[in-house]
């Protein structure tokens, strides 16, 4: 049984301003290779214990389905694609892949779950990805770029999935955590729980509030200890951040972050972190990845993905925000210079 504790969530996103702690029950468990924090407000201990047990099982099931390199449903799908044969899939698997496809298209494939072989080239699809190792040869990257696969190469019909491009290798590292959080919130809501936070490795979705106050979370500074900003969440919102400070390896003094730009085949440059606020955690997760990669193009991509609240921290420390995000967020250092950029509408969206 999970033991509940009263504590602050200390991760990439930090939960702050938690009064009424006597009504807040919290627990931790591990899945997706990271720590998951659950905060429930206004429920009794037995309900909380039962709920977290259900959540642990739900996260375990999703992790087993979508792990990119350990035996899973996803590895079976990728084996079938590599062998150029169709594979039967369940409706829930089809639903996730279709949602990922829609977000990939909207992002102009800057979020590209079909690019698993590129991540393999860089050594990120293995348990010891963080150990020092040489980057892939330019020739190998060029070969991948000569015919880059996309989610358009995936076909689903009558319960079967197939691809006519054997270069496709699916990986949902920029999306599965958000999907899992959405599924977890659905479990809570089905049990009548209206006030909660699910925090997975620092990314989260919050419903309701705690007592008379909203849930207030802090956004981690990408280069310094502590927070760069805080935001009060409203009823049902997700906050996801993609950054270069969590997952990377170093080789001969050079740092290689794990967020790859499918246009260049190499780690994206120019941005330290991208934070997205959205009602749907899966969308926020995919969008944070895509907008990190997009760089100067982020307002166009954000609009296409249906995202209104965005904050980017550039390599030089400059902060750029959409006006909607600037209206919601509070910077810890209020003297920080902020550039507001309107989301750019394009006629083809």
SSE order and pairing:
Layout: E1 13-16, E2 24-31, E3 34-41, H1 45-66, H2 73-82, E4 87-88, H3 91-106, H4 116-121, H5 138-145, E5 154-157, E6 160-163, H6 176-190, E7 196-200, E8 203-208, E9 216-220, E10 227-232, E11 235-243, E12 248-251, E13 254-257, E14 260-261, E15 266-267, E16 271-278, H7 281-294, H8 298-304, E17 309-314, E18 319-321, H9 323-328, E19 329-331, E20 338-340
Parallel strand pairs: 18-20
Antiparallel strand pairs: 1-9, 2-3, 3-7, 4-6, 5-6, 7-8, 8-11, 9-10, 10-19, 11-16, 12-13, 14-15, 16-17, 17-18
Helix pairs in contact: 1-6, 6-7, 7-8
Give short descriptive properties of this protein.
T-fold, 20 strands, alpha+beta, 9-stranded mixed sheet, 349 residues
Number of strands: 20
Instruction: Report on the biggest sheet.
Output: 9 strands, mixed
Structure annotation, total helices: 9
> Order of strands in the sheet with the most strands?
2-3-7-8-11-16-17-18-20
- Shape, per Cα inertia axes: globular
Termini separation comes to 49 Å
CATH topology: T-fold
CATH C-level category: Alpha Beta
Write the CATH architecture name.
Answer: Roll
Number of domains: 1
Strand content: 25-35%
Mean pLDDT metric: 87
Order of helices and strands: EEEHHEHHHEEHEEEEEEEEEEHHEEHEE
């Amino acid at each position: 049984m999970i033991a509940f504790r009263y504590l602050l969530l200390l991760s990439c996103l930090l939960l702050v301003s938690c009064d009424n702690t006597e009504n807040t029950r919290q627990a931790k468990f591990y899945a997706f290779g990271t720590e998951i924090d659950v905060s429930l407000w206004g429920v009794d201990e037995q309900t909380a214990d039962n709920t977290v047990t259900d959540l642990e099982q739900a996260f375990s099931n999703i992790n087993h389905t979508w792990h990119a390199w350990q035996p899973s449903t996803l590895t079976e799908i990728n084996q079938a694609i590599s062998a150029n044969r169709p594979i039967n899939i369940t409706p829930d698997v089809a639903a996730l892949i279709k949602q990922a496809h829609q977000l990939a298209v909207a992002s102009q494939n800057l979020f590209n779950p079909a690019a698993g072989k590129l991540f393999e080239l860089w050594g990120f699809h293995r348990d010891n990805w963080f150990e020092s190792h040489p980057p892939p040869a330019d020739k190998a990257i060029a070969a991948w770029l000569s015919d880059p696969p996309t989610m358009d190469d995936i076909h689903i019909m009558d319960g079967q999935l197939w691809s006519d491009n054997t270069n496709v290798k699916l990986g949902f590292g920029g999306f599965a955590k958000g999907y899992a959080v959405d599924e977890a919130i659905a479990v809570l809501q089905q049990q009548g729980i209206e006030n909660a936070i699910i925090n997975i490795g620092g990314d989260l979705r919050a419903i309701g509030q705690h007592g008379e106050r909203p849930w207030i979370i802090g956004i981690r500074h990408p280069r310094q200890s502590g927070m760069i900003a805080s935001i009060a969440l409203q009823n049902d919102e997700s906050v996801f951040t993609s950054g270069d400070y969590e997952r990377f390896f170093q080789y001969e003094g050079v740092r290689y972050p794990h967020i790859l730009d499918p246009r260049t085949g190499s780690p994206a440059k120019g941005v330290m972190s991208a934070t997205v606020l959205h009602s749907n955690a899966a969308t926020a997760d995919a969008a944070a990845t895509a907008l990190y990669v997009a760089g100067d193009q982020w307002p166009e991509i954000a609009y296409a993905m249906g995202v209104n609240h965005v904050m980017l921290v550039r390599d030089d420390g400059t902060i750029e925000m959409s006006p909607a995000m600037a209206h919601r967020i509070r910077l810890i250092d209020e003297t920080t210079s902020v550039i507001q950029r309107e989301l750019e509408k394009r006629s083809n969206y």
